[in-house]
Write a structure and sequence with these properties.
Elements: H1 8-18, H2 30-40, H3 56-74, H4 79-82, H5 85-98, H6 104-113
Helix pairs in contact: 2-5
């Protein structure tokens, strides 16, 4: 704006797309990082990392996630079957590519340890 390349309307356009709703910040901070990495690890359904908290799609995703948990329970599929070494290495790669929170790897380390 100071250089005259962007007017007030242009600034508002950025604000509206960068922070479109209430809920967690739109930055790649801890909450969003962990949601994205949970999806990458296979422990969250597609969209888990990117659907804003207040969108109706989040409720649909929660219902489908519950249904999927029950299906996996019936098939005796456990977290150990999903969070393989390759899945973890993939999550590390995605963490670096997305520039996730510095908290994400220490937190994932704790989760993996308890796996």
């Amino acid at each position: 704006m100071q250089q005259g390349k962007l007017d007030e309307e242009g600034v508002q356009e950025y604000v509206n797309h960068a922070c479109p709703t209430c809920g967690s910040c739109s930055g790649m901070y801890t909450a969003n990082s962990m949601n994205c990495l949970t999806e990458v690890l296979g422990m969250g359904l597609p969209g888990n990392g990117t659907i804003p908290a207040v969108y109706s799609e989040r409720l649909k995703l929660a219902k489908h996630a519950g249904m999927k948990v029950m299906e996996m329970l019936e098939k005796n599929i456990r977290p150990r079957d999903i969070m393989t070494k390759d899945a973890i290495l993939n999550a590390l790669t995605i963490d670096m590519a997305l520039g996730c929170s510095t908290n994400s790897m220490p937190q994932k380390k704790k989760e993996i340890k308890h796996k």
